[in-house]
Structure formats: structure tokens, C-alpha cells
Amino acid sequence: MSGRVLVAGIGNIFLGDDGFGVEVAQRLAGEAFPAGVRVVDFGIRGLHLAHELLNDYDTAILVDAAPRGGTPGTLYVIEPDPAPTPDAPFDAHALNPEAVLAAVKALGGEVGRVLVVGCEPATVEEGIGLSAPVARAVDEALRVVRDLVADETTSRTQEQEEART
């Protein structure tokens, strides 16, 4: 185990609340994290994310808008099925997490644990800027991501120490 964690902001800033993951990643990018933690705004660059996931991460935390039928601004922590749908459509101009995970597998890679910090959008129509409920959820999402990174890096450190003894 490498102890490496990738925090990936996902979304299209030109589609309102779809820019949620990008906003969270941009705000986290200026923070100090333990060695082995990388924060990147991938936007809609799915192929770039798929190639990055080939770099031996134990955990990938994807931050994205996640329409699930809840109240706009509601946060979710989702652990998707580790076996992605093999026929998930891949679009070089969009970023579908299931398609990215399928692409990683097709490229011969393996993804460790995947977590999605999702936010229920109010709107994903054309326009720049987050809606008020989603903008209010950003600070809480920052806390959730920081906690997940701390949990993942702490558990990896403990596993490495136990393996040495």
C-alpha cells in the first residue's frame, strides 16, 4: 500500500451547480495535507482523471454534483460499486465517474477505495456560479473531505506500522 490519496474535483463550471466539485477542489488546493495526498481540479477531463488513477492511489475521493432526488445542497458520501459497468459510455468532453472507473480497468489499472462526496444540485443549466444552497454546502464539503483524507491517511499509516511489526 502506498498510502496515497487523490482528491478529484469534478464538474463543469458552465453548468451552474455542476461546478460544485471544481469549487471544492480549488479551495482545498491551497491547504496543506499529509505527504501522499494530491488535490486536483479535473473539471470535465475524464481521460486525464483515468490516467491519474493509474498512479497507485489507495483511495480516490471524487467530489461532484450528485443528483439523487434530495434537497438542493444535501451532501452525500457514496462508496460506488468497485466493479464499474464495463459499457459505461466514455465522453472526452464530459466526466462520468462510472465511465472513468471503467476506463481505468480497460487500461489495465486498478483503483483502490473510491468515495464520492456528492452534493444535490439545484440546477445544472447553463450559467456560471453555484446556486445559494449548493454554495452554502461547500464549507461542509470541505470539512467532509478533510475528515475522509484524515481517516484514510491514518488507517494507511496504522496498516503500514502493523505490517512492519
Report on this model:
There is one protein chain. Helix 1 crosses helix 4 and helix 2 (46-52) crosses helix 3. The chain has helices at 20-28, 46-52, 97-106, 132-164, and strands spanning 5-10, 37-43, 59-65, 75-78, 113-119. Helices cover 36% and strands 19% of the residues. Strand 1, helix 1 (20-28) and strand 2 (37-43) form a beta-alpha-beta unit. It has one domain (5-164): HybD-like (Rossmann fold). It has a five-stranded mixed sheet with strand order 2-1-3-5-4, sandwiched between helices. The chain has four helices and five strands. The two termini are 16 Å apart. It is an alpha/beta fold and 165 residues long.
Keywords:
single chain, 165 residues, alpha/beta, Rossmann fold, five-stranded mixed beta sheet, 5 strands, 36% helix, globular
User: Between the first and last Cα atoms, what is the distance in angstroms?
Assistant: 16 Å
How many DSSP helices? 4
Q: Portion of residues in helices?
A: 25-40%
Which spans have pLDDT < 50 for at least 5 consecutive residues? none
- The total number of structural domains is 1
Report the major sheet: 5 strands, mixed
- CATH level-1 class: Alpha Beta
